[in-house]
Amino acid sequence: MSPLSQKPIPPEERLILAVDVPGYEQALELVERLGEAVRFYKLGLELAMSGRYFDLVDELAGRGKRVFADLKFFDIPNTVAAAVRELAKRRVDFATLHAGHAPMLEAACSEKGSVQLLAVTLLTSVAPEELASEGIALSPRELVEARARRAIELGCDGVIASGVEAAALRRALGDDFLIVSPGIRPQRAADDQRRVVTPRQAFENGADYIVVGRPITRAVDPEAAAADIQRSIREVFAGAG
């Protein structure tokens, strides 16, 4: 049986757009161009360096959009807890931190407020052979499962995990947490992502949300590209409930 998400998430919010542009004006131009085709935006490290990151957060929230602060916190527990405490004062729905240190995860979760914290299990650009070269004797699936289990036990609301590993996570850990899957490619592309799946595969494997960037932002018509993915999402969840 497919582990298709049964959570009451509006289908149009299951697509999260990665806004990987260098500044505020370019981001707003993209948002304007996409219109109602995208309801949820991920703002990452490139934008964080632009100087107007939280201006953009407030602008998006003011337009009724959902916001994912993808800042991937990783530091000593006190520092990360303080950062999460400040972020919780902002109009942010999701935020990320790396899943590599239990005391840090626990400290962050104690300060999260209404922000849903997602633990990054393993970057989708990492190939299996790279783990061995770093002295990690686990497969990507085993490592992702171990990190996800610990993050959820410590209070994280969900994980960032490739759709490749999503089905195994659902079998091992159930449905009572979020899986947000990056590395989504409607068709095979030559880029730095390794462990990729299509939108349909990600959801059928148990993802709750997918993160898509370049297949939309670099399309000739970004709005049409987003609309095509939204259409595929509606088809996947048609009749689900």
Question: Can you describe this structure?
Answer:
This protein is an alpha/beta fold and 241 residues long. The protein has one domain (11-234): Aldolase class I (TIM Barrel). It contains 11 helices and 8 strands. The chain has helices at residues 24-34, 45-48, 53-62, 77-87, 102-109, 128-133, 140-153, 163-173, 199-204, 214-217, 222-237; strands at residues 15-18, 40-43, 66-73, 94-98, 116-120, 158-160, 178-181, 209-212. An 8-stranded parallel barrel has the order 1-2-3-4-5-6-7-8, surrounded by 4 helices. Strand 1, helix 1 and strand 2 (40-43) form a beta-alpha-beta unit. Helix 4 (77-87) runs parallel beside helix 5 (102-109) and helix 7 (140-153) packs across helix 8. The longest helix has 16 residues, at 222-237.
Instruction: Give me the CATH fold name.
Output: TIM Barrel
Mean pLDDT: 92
- The SSE string, one letter per element, is EHEHHEHEHEHHEHEHEHH
Query: Would you tell me the structural class of the helices and strands?
Result: alpha/beta
Which architecture does the CATH hierarchy give at level 2? Answer: Alpha-Beta Barrel
Provide the β-strand percentage band: 15-25%
Distance between the termini: 15 Å
- What is the domain total for the residues? 1
Contiguous low-pLDDT stretches (5 residues minimum) are: none
Give me the number of helical elements.
11
Full CATH superfamily name: Aldolase class I
Q: What order do the strands of the largest sheet run in, or round the barrel if closed?
A: 1-2-3-4-5-6-7-8
Rg calculated over all Cα atoms = 17 Å
**Silhouette:** globular
Structure summary, number of beta strands: 8
CATH class: Alpha Beta
Biggest beta-sheet profile: 8 strands, parallel, barrel
